[in-house]
Design goal:
Elements: H1 6-13, H2 17-24, H3 32-45, H4 51-57, E1 63-69, H5 74-89, E2 93-99, H6 106-116, E3 121-125, H7 133-144, E4 150-153, E5 166-170, H8 172-185, E6 191-196, H9 205-219, E7 229-231, H10 241-253, E8 261-264, H11 267-279, E9 289-291, H12 297-301, E10 308-310, H13 313-329, E11 337-340, E12 343-345
Parallel strand pairs: 1-2, 1-3, 3-4, 4-5, 5-11, 6-7, 6-8, 8-9
Antiparallel strand pairs: 10-12
Helix pairs in contact: 1-2, 1-3, 2-3, 2-5, 5-13, 6-7, 8-9, 10-11
Amino acid sequence: MSEMTIKELARICGVAVSTVSRAMNDRSDVNPQTRTRIRAAAEKYGYVPNASARRLKIGSTDTIAVFIQGEFGQLLIEVLQHLEVAFADAGYDVTLSHVADTQNDHAGLVERIVREGKFGGVVFLGRYGSADREASAQLSRRLGEIDVPMVFCTTPDYSGSAAQHSSISVDDHAGARDLTAHLISRGHRRIAFVGAGEEPDREHAWALRLAGYRAALQDAGVPFDESLVVASVVEGQVYTMRNGYESTQRWLQSGRAGATAFFAVCDTAAIGAGRALIEAGLSVPADVSLVGFDGLDVADYYNPRLTTIVQPVSEIAQSTARVLLATMREPARAIEQVWVRGRLVEGASVAAPPAS
């Protein structure tokens, strides 16, 4: 029989995962009756906390900080939920800090919070740094001087400096290559890429996906056409429905040569693109095919259901927790750059190009 997890024990006791973690670690901020009930349930069902992680906590702080900058979409929420469970199982609380792009000197704010906070470790979840590449590089160097283990989750450290921190992310390039190859296998040759960002940085998720798209075209001997790359029209909001909608709308109104398929930079952008296509009198997939990236729940409920690359969020979160806890245990260990392969899931949004 498989071992009981902290998430299962929390469900049985009707409490939050963090409450189970605090009760099992004899924290004083848990109601004594609740602590007794949780410990009794743990004994009854055979729940055993992660012993190595509990030993790691000795002499360390009880909190791991998670930073999210800018957009706070469904994908990051799902990863955060998995991170909270993984760290709670190891006996740690999680504190979340959201830094808005409109925040003045957001890089300085992040550095200040990390320096002043008493954290056992730090996770940067989602986009990191500044549109100013040199400013991001400086922040990365300053953070590297702080004696707190850090890991980047769902993104590499693309600050431009030599890699100083471990990172775990989906393989954006390989996923986009697979998705484009799938469209080509269905007969598509004119494939628009919707939602490209404005900053020419090859390590952003959208840029890695664009590079994978181009690689698949090259693999198939299909010439790359710059006019088929639909650039972002919403500054700082690449991974949004609005970006997909307004970018596709602008492209359709430009009178450019038609595309038979649209590859949106993410699922949310694909939904926005789909609305623009429908408003233009086009049917998906009868007139044009449409694909996304990320594998969000919303892709399953879009009509028609989106073909997409599913990010294995549980694996990404578990790898992030593993690497951070190992770094907390051994700060001088070598950094890890982990690329997790996504899975292509076919929906109903792709068909062969119309005969006309």
